[in-house]
Amino acid sequence: MAETQTLDARVAALGGAGAAPRRSLWRRIEPAAWGAGSFVVLLLVWQFVPYFVPLKPGTRLFFTVPSRVAATLWQMIVSGSLWAPLGVSATAFATGLAIAIVVGLPLGILIGRSSLLNAMFDPFITAFNATPRLVFLPLLMLWLGIGLWSKVAIVFIGALFPLLINTYEGVRAADKLLINVVRSFGANEWDIARLVVVPNALPFIVVGLRLAIGRAVLGVVVSEFFGSQEGLGVVMVRAASGFQVDVVFAGLIVFAGLSLLMTGLVKLLEDRMTRWRPGHVNAQ
Amino acid sequence: MAGYIEGRNVSLTFRPPNRAPVRALGGFDIAVEEGEFLSIVGPSGCGKSTFLNVVLGLTKLDSGEVLMHGKPIGGPGSDRAMVFQEFGLLPWRTVQHNIELGLELKKVPAEKRRATAERLVVLVGLAGFEQHYPHELSGGMKQRVGLARALATDPDVLLMDEPFAALDAQTRDLMQAELLRIWREARKTVLFVTHQIDEAIYLSDRVVVMSKRPGRAKKIFAIGLPRPREYEMRVTPQFNDLKLEIWNTLKDEIVA
Fold first, then answer.
1. pLDDT tens-digit series, residues A108-130
2. A195 reaches B (C-beta below 8 A)
3. b/e per residue, A23-59, with b = 16+ CB within 10 A?
4. Residue A248 is part of a domain; what is its CATH number?
5. Which of A94, A129, A273, B191 has its CA 20 to 30 A from that of A26?
6. Partner-chain contact B106 A186, CB within 8 Å
């Protein structure tokens, strides 16, 4: 009650001017509201399917409704059974992605700046990029076992190429005039990279990072589906073979949430780094 | 008489891959005096911008030599700075940090850099725009930043490669007057490349007309107009006679 009064008082304090900002606020959130609305409608329809469509007992085994998924996910959170497998998956994801960034960015810059290195690496990059990286999974499991490191490796090779290739493209797109400008002030190769090439390539790198996150999550999920003893993917596979559809959906939601969170962080990073731009520019 | 900047028999041929080589300069001679404002006019592709890049130290010549203070130019140096036609500002840097670029590369401490930038922002008439990004500025303002950046390292020679070509006519007139004011204060030797005969006469002590490619110095005109130059001088008979004379020298070289 007290809170309501404060809010009312604040609205009153805004006075007549309050109406205009409120309308512009609605205009800003309108697309998001429609998106959320249609999502809620979808969930409701799904929730009430069993009331309208008679399901055979056999089919019911593979079916669930949103409320049961939510309850199961909540149960997994409070009982703690979510955290250990999620920790295993997140470690593989973060380690693989971090190595891909540490290797991919400098390598992309180097091969973008040096025609010699470009000529040396190009056949490998083209061949690797044309191959679905998941075909390496059996080999990696053989070499690295079914623990953390085969997962890290598959995440790494999945995330590396979008980062490497986008960084390379961004470096190649560097403005020759700006390079000449800094060179005329006595810049060496390192200065050129630092002052022109990297800032210019940032939008490309961010696109690469977004793609890399998607590939990294895919790498974790698939390697846990096919050969692993721990992790959220393993929990999902085991639940599926035990017909626990709720748990499978709960795992799916967690993976989707993880992807969305990471992509959101990248977007935030992008906004911070590209404040100098006239508008938002899409690199690809 | 030995000049402050001296080009002797400068020749240069571009050899782009898979294309016929292009002889840009073929025995170009020039002597620029200290403190002089010298303009180069010539037909498109005659190598006048190329010569500026040689003096700047970004382009190597094939034969002949370019000397400054009697010493051959081996590469970029802080005694020379260029103002570029397309401005060449780093879009992710503010006005202040663009001006500081050359000082930063010379490892000048931040405190001193800022003081220099503050002084130059006032000199070029951009006070209050220090924290603006290039995309928030008009063309004329961008070139003021380009000029301030070139002056920041306190070079002896200012190289200007059609600096006002990307500006509209009125802004260009204004910037010419501004350049003369700044030149009076900063006292630099200026080597100025332009397509505009008016601009060359109005600004310069001497105007060099170049031949078509491969470029050579065809004729040098001494501009006897008194300084400080006034806008009204552009409509005097003396100005128009010079303009006609330079045009007559230049027109045979222009291949349309």
1. 999 999 989 999 999 998 888 88
2. yes
3. eeeeeeeeeeeeeeeeeeeeeeeeeeeeeeeeeeeee
4. 1.10.3720.10
5. A273
6. yes
Predicted confidence (pLDDT) per residue in B52-86, tens digit = 999 999 999 889 999 998 899 989 998 999 999 99
Q: Are residues A38 and A133 in the same domain?
A: no
Chain A residue with CA closest to B92: the answer is A276
pLDDT digits (tens, 9 = 90+) for B176-232: 999 999 998 888 999 999 999 999 999 999 999 999 988 899 999 999 999 999 999
Tokens 């309308």 correspond to A23
SS3 A217: helix
Q: Model pTM?
A: 0.81
Q: Is A279 on the interface with B (CB under 8 A)?
A: no
Residue A103 lies in a domain: yes
- Residue B226 main-chain phi, psi, to 5 deg: -70, 160
Which one, of B89, B91, B102, lies nearest residue B150 by Cα?
A: B102
What is the C-alpha separation between A79 and B9, in angstroms, rounded? 86
- Per the domain annotation, does A280 fall within a domain? no
Residues in A touching B154 (Cβ below 8 Å)? none
Q: How far apart are CA A94 and CA A89, in angstroms?
A: 9
Mean pLDDT on B105-123: 95
CB-based contacts of B110, cutoff 8 Å, min separation 6: none
